[in-house]
Amino acid sequence: MPEPATMEQVFSILADRHSVNILKMAYSGFKASGTSYAGNLSKKQFYVRLKRLRDSGLIEKRNSTYRTTTFGSLLYNGHIKTIEEILVNYWNLKAVDLLKSRQDFPLQQKEKVIDEIIKSTSLRNIVNGTHLSGFSVIKDYNRLVMEVIKLMESAQHEVYMASRYHDPHFSKVMFKKIADGVKMHLLDSLPDQISVENRLNAILRTPPNRETFEMVDKIVKSGRFDLRRKVVAASFIVVDGTTVCYETTSYANPEQFTLAISHYDDQYLAKRFIDYYNTLASDATIPQVLMSIKER
Q1: Which of 35, 176, 228, 234 could make a disulfide contact with 284, Cβ separation 3.0–4.6 Å?
Q2: HEC string for 259-281
Q3: pTM
């Protein structure tokens, strides 16, 4: 049994227009003996590509007819047809980019116009205005963890965050970003026993290794880590003044994660959440681990 095609092999095939055309022919079905391929290929060149498509598991021969496999059909419908539709609508997408860059246009109006642009094209079968207006809805806690890790990894300058959850993978990414120069403002709403302050103190008292101790020691002394303690009703994160992910709470069960929304290009909303953070932080407690450093 042949090995499954790798991503590199698939993209290599898609990069060759003749191979793509043969795949499109196979989607409808063709008999090689009676095929007239209008693509300036010799008979040998045609069969070399046909063999490559078969070896990659994209085409098979059934009852003397070449047809796409399930794999090939999914690739054709999911990627080739989609790319063709996108290319046809290139200038409509440029109009969306131009609209998104306008700072003098209210966000809700932007989203309405983007939605109308999409509805007026064949792209309406591929995406909707939500895909292009820059936000997503997260309904699963594990996806939320992945989302905030992705956002933290993308941070270049400054992050504001209020959190009532703890995830060790996110903490590792956050501390590395601070060590690399990103300024972090954090409102810690975790229970005392697992608070960020207690975890930092534990590392400084009994470090698991020298590298971790030096990183944490550097972070708490750097001035880039503005850590405060306060109970918050819902978590949120603002990255580089443009991206916001915020949690909505359920009145029926406010302790349990319900829903989160990410906005990827919304400076106005980011500014509102930064102002909200500063309001919450104004009477928050500064942990002793940072206070002792500031008093030196």
Answers
A1: 228
A2: EEEEECCCHHHHHHHHHHHHHHH
A3: 0.58
